[in-house]
Amino acid sequence: MAPDLFLTVLAFTTSAIVNPKEVETHVSGNDMGSTWLTDHSAGSGPYILAKWDRNSQIVLKANPNYWRGKPAIDTIIIKHVPEPATQRLLLEKGDVDIAFGLTIDLIDQIKDKPGIRVMSYPVLQLAYIGMNVNNKYLSDERVRTAIKYAIDYDGIIKDILRGGAMKVQTIIPYPLLGFNPSTPFYRDINKAKQLLAEAGYANGFEIELAYPAGAHPQEEIAQKIQRDLGDVGIRVVLRPTAASEMYQRYRQQALQMVLAGWGSDYPDPDNNAKAFGNYRIKQLAWRNMWYDNTSADLVERAFRESDRASREALYKQLTEYILQLGPYVVLYQVVQHVAMRTWVENFVPDPSFGTYLHLYKVYKEAVVSR
């Protein structure tokens, strides 16, 4: 295993340290204390889980024994507020300090208001179209390339997401080791039609696209993809599906095309490389039935490579290979927006899933009035 990968996984939340003596006193059967840990903490971090009311709030208390010293803020309350408009009102009134779930419309409405600032940053999440190469049409590399040229990437990013994404077309997100900034595909209707004609489909064909029903912005993006591919003769039948059912069918290799996302499980290129490039582990490559040994072998070589520069070179080779031949249209990398009161200081956003926050150094300036 590459040293960078080992240290990344070891330092990530997947390897969180807990006090074995405390946990062992709460073991139930063979659960190793995991049931108790659902609602309690026994770690060494800056905060202790004091209370968790499902669908209401989480209360964290400062750990007086934290090895770096007690945090600046004694109590942190994380409220469950599912309605974005309600989050906005609470933030404007000063009843909450940070809002994570605002839509781009709400962000635009408050970003210039006194007492509020907005932080925008890329997170390790990619949106992509998966193409099942077992399908008669999608098995042809020329058809997959035609689809890549038919899509209006800039329109999706600028008109639908409006600042909520950055243009990325390769499978390792910025700024991880191995990120490849190459973006060779753009909307070229003539080129797409030419490729389809070369593949024997000058009159196009019909294909299904599954996406999470009712989800924003997936609904709008799916409709735009339908229009974009329609312009080159590909008739897309949209299949909005409950997310749980969609991913279940995806794991069963039962979808033709799917609009989906992938978030890095740990901040090392190995996670994305395995998912997109190695069918042997039965993740995304396997779900799209792309049994490519060249790609899988490159993934495994990079996993074992101990020299950082050599490992980076392998990921360059891998990302270029998948970019040109793989069964994916990488649409964009997600850009997250967080709105907060200006009295919040030292807040560092989480680039992974938005929930792994390091709050030790966060503090609030004295608020004289609201």
Give a brief outline of the structure:
35% of the residues lie in helices and 21% in strands. With 370 residues, it is of the alpha+beta class.
Description:
The protein has 370 residues and is an alpha+beta fold. It has helices at residues 3-11, 20-24, 34-37, 84-93, 104-110, 141-150, 153-161, 189-198, 218-230, 243-251, 269-277, 284-287, 293-304, 308-325, and strands at 47-53, 57-62, 75-79, 98-99, 116-131, 165-166, 205-212, 234-241, 257-263, 328-341, 344-345, 363-364. Strand 1 and strand 2 (57-62) form a beta hairpin. The chain folds into 2 domains: 18-121 and 338-364, Periplasmic binding protein-like II (D-Maltodextrin-Binding Protein, domain 2, 3-Layer(aba) Sandwich), CATH 3.40.190.10; 122-334, Dipeptide-binding Protein, domain 3. It is globular and about 70 Å long. The chain contains 14 helices and 12 strands.
Features:
single chain, 370 residues, alpha+beta, D-Maltodextrin-Binding Protein, domain 2, Dipeptide-binding Protein, domain 3, 3-stranded antiparallel sheet, 14 helices, 35% helix, 21% strand
Topology of helices and strands:
Elements: H1 3-11, H2 20-24, H3 34-37, E1 47-53, E2 57-62, E3 75-79, H4 84-93, E4 98-99, H5 104-110, E5 116-131, H6 141-150, H7 153-161, E6 165-166, H8 189-198, E7 205-212, H9 218-230, E8 234-241, H10 243-251, E9 257-263, H11 269-277, H12 284-287, H13 293-304, H14 308-325, E10 328-341, E11 344-345, E12 363-364
Parallel strand pairs: 7-8, 7-9
Antiparallel strand pairs: 1-2, 2-3, 4-10, 5-9, 5-10, 6-10, 11-12
Helix pairs in contact: 6-8, 11-13, 11-14, 13-14
